[in-house]
Design goal:
Alpha-Beta Plaits; FAD; seven-stranded antiparallel β-sheet; single chain; catalytic activity; alpha+beta; Uridine Diphospho-n-acetylenolpyruvylglucosamine Reductase, domain 3; disordered N terminus
Length: 482
C-alpha cells in the first residue's frame, strides 16, 4: 500500500496558528474566498477545502507545512489552477488545505552570461517570458495558459507546449530547484551548473511529480538567445500524413530552425472560425487539415523567409501543400497563432468535450488520428473528433466534442469509455496516455495498466520515502492501493 490517504481535519487551533504565522494576507478561511480554489479549470471537479494558505516566502511556507504535517493535515499545491486533469483541486471531504504560492512572485535575477534565470514559483510563465525578453534572452517554454500558469505548477507538471520540438519539455530547462518537503524541511538545490555529477539528480524527482512530493518554491532555468528572425506560415494540407511530409521537408532543410510545428484538423479549425470572435481563416478555402509552422533563429542576417518559401515551393509542386499564407507582420503572426491557441475555447463553446492528451512516435501520428477517429465514431455516432497539437514531437490532443444536440452530461458520463477507446489504440502504437498534461485526478485509474509492476512500485516507494503519511496532493497521480 502507498502512503496512507487518510488525513486529519484541520482544527481551530491549527488554523489559528497558521493565521498567526502567515498574517491576514496569507490565509483564506471564508467559504466565499476559498471556493474559487476548489474547482478546476474544466469544471470537472468541485471539491472543498478548510483553508487556502498564501505564504510570502520559503521560510513561511516551510513553517506552515511543518504545522500541517504535525497535525496530519493533507495539502494540495495550486498554482494558476490551469490543470487539464484536475491535478490541483482538493477532494470533496473538506479536510484538505490548498497552498497557493502566487505571492512568491519575484524574478530574483537573470544572468546574461550564464543564460539563467532564478525565479520564484508564483511568477506566471508569461511574466517570466517577458522578464527574459527584457534582458535580451528567451524563456522558450510556451503553453496556451501561460498568462495564468505559474512556474511552480509548470515545473511540477513538466509542461510541454508549442516549442518542445526544439527546446524540450520543462524538465530540460531546469538546472536547479528549491523545494519544501512534506515535513517542512527545505531541499536547496538552486545550482546554476550545467555539469554536477554528484549522485542522484534530485531536482528531476520533483519535476513532473504533480505536487505529490513537495512544494517547488523557486527554480533556476536555462534561457536561450532571443531570436533575431521569426517567420510563420499557415499551410493547408490533406491530412496528417501530408503534415508529416511537410515537417520532414523543413527538418531536412535545417532542423535547428523549427521552433514550432502544429497540426490542426479541418473540423477543429471550423469550430474556431465559427465560434471564436475575431478568428478568421486567411486562406481562400477550407482544408481537411492545417499546419502552423514557425521558424526562428538567433543568427544575424539569416534569411528565414527564403527558407520558408523554398520549402513551401517544393511542397506545392509535390502536391503536399494546397495553399499557404506567410505572416507579413507580428500582428499577422499572432493572428495565425490565435487560430491554434483558441482550439480549446472553441471546443468548450461547441459543447462538452473529452480531452485525450496522448503521444505516439512521430511517424505513427497519422495512424493514431485515423484509427481513433473511426473507433470513436463507432462508439458514439455523431461524435466530433477535433484533434490538434504538437505533431512535430508526437503529442496530439485527440479531443472529441459531443454530437450536436446531445445532452452534455450524458456525453461526459461516457468519458472513461471514450478515453479507454483512444488509449487502447495509443498503446498499440507504443504511445503514452498522458503526454504533457499529467495524470492528476482524472487518470490515476490508468496507471496500473500502463505503469504497473516494477515501475509503479518504484514510484510508490519514492512517494512513501519522501511523504510517508501521504499528505501531499493525496488524490493525485496514484490509484488507490489494493
Amino acid at each position: 500500500m502507498t502512503a496512507s490517504q487518510s488525513s486529519a481535519p484541520p482544527t481551530a487551533d491549527l488554523l489559528a496558528r497558521l493565521a498567526a504565522l502567515l498574517g491576514p494576507s496569507g490565509i483564506l478561511t471564508d467559504s466565499s474566498d476559498v471556493a474559487p480554489y476548489c474547482t478546476d479549470w474544466r469544471a470537472l471537479y468541485h471539491g472543498r477545502a478548510a483553508a487556502v494558505l498564501r505564504p510570502a516566502g520559503t521560510a513561511e511556507l516551510a513553517q506552515a507545512v511543518a504545522l500541517c504535517a504535525e497535525a496530519g493535515v493533507a495539502m494540495v499545491p495550486q498554482g494558476g489552477n490551469t490543470s487539464m486533469v484536475g491535478g490541483a483541486t482538493p477532494d470533496e471531504s473538506g479536510r484538505d488545505i490548498v497552498v497557493c504560492l502566487s505571492r512568491m512572485n519575484r524574478v530574483r535575477r537573470i544572468d546574461p552570461l550564464d543564460h539563467t534565470m532564478e525565479i520564484e514559483a508564483g511568477v506566471t510563465l508569461k511574466a517570466a517570458q517577458d522578464a527574459a525578453r527584457d534582458a535580451g534572452l528567451m524563456l522558450p517554454l510556451s503553453i496556451s495558459s501561460e498568462g495564468s500558469a505559474q512556474i511552480g505548477g509548470v515545473l511540477a507538471t513538466n509542461a510541454g507546449g508549442n516549442n518542445t520540438v526544439r527546446y524540450g519539455n520543462a524538465r530540460e530547462l531546469v538546472l536547479g530547484l528549491e523545494v519544501v518537503l512534506p515535513d517542512g524541511s527545505v531541499f536547496n538545490g538552486l545550482r546554476r551548473l550545467r555539469k554536477d555529477n554528484t549522485g542522484y539528480a534530485l531536482r528531476q524527482l520533483f519535476v513532473g511529480s504533480e505536487g505529490t512530493l513537495g512544494f517547488i518554491t523557486s527554480a533556476i532555468l536555462q534561457l536561450q538567445p532571443q531570436p533575431r528572425a521569426v517567420e510563420a506560415a499557415l499551410c493547408a494540407v490533406a491530412d496528417a500524413s501530408a503534415a508529416l511530409a511537410l515537417f520532414a521537408a523543413f527538418r531536412d532543410q535545417d532542423p535547428a530552425l523549427i521552433q514550432a510545428f502544429e497540426y490542426m484538423s479541418g473540423a477543429g479549425m471550423d469550430l474556431v472560425t465559427r465560434l471564436v470572435p475575431g478568428a478568421s481563416l486567411p486562406l481562400a478555402e477550407a482544408a481537411p487539415a492545417y499546419v502552423l509552422v514557425e521558424l526562428a533563429t538567433p543568427r544575424r542576417n539569416a534569411d528565414l523567409r527564403a527558407v520558408l518559401e523554398d520549402v513551401l515551393a517544393g511542397m506545392f509542386e509535390a502536391g503536399t501543400v494546397s495553399d499557404a499564407v506567410i505572416a507579413e507582420s507580428e500582428g499577422q503572426r499572432l493572428a495565425l497563432w490565435k487560430l491554434r491557441e483558441e482550439h480549446a475555447e472553441a471546443q468548450r463553446r461547441a459543447g462538452a468535450s473529452v480531452k485525450n492528451d496522448v503521444s505516439v512516435p512521430v511517424s505513427r501520428v497519422p495512424e493514431l488520428i485515423d484509427r481513433a477517429s473511426t473507433a470513436c465514431a463507432a462508439l458514439i455516432p455523431g461524435i466530433r473528433p477535433a484533434p490538434f497539437g504538437h505533431i512535430g514531437d508526437g503529442n496530439i490532443h485527440f479531443n472529441l466534442v459531443q454530437p450536436e444536440g446531445m445532452d452534455p452530461a450524458e456525453f461526459l458520463a461516457q468519458d472513461h469509455r471514450i478515453m479507454d477507446t483512444v488509449a487502447a489504440i495509443v498503446r498499440e502504437l507504443d504511445g503514452s496516455f498522458s503526454a504533457e498534461h499529467g495524470v492528476g485526478r482524472l487518470k490515476p485509474y490508468m496507471m496500473p495498466g500502463w505503469r504497473g509492476g516494477a515501475e509503479l512500485a518504484t514510484m510508490r516507494r519514492i512517494k512513501n520515502a519522501i511523504d510517508p503519511r501521504g499528505l501531499m496532493n493525496p488524490a493525485t497521480l496514484f490509484p488507490p492501493a489494493g
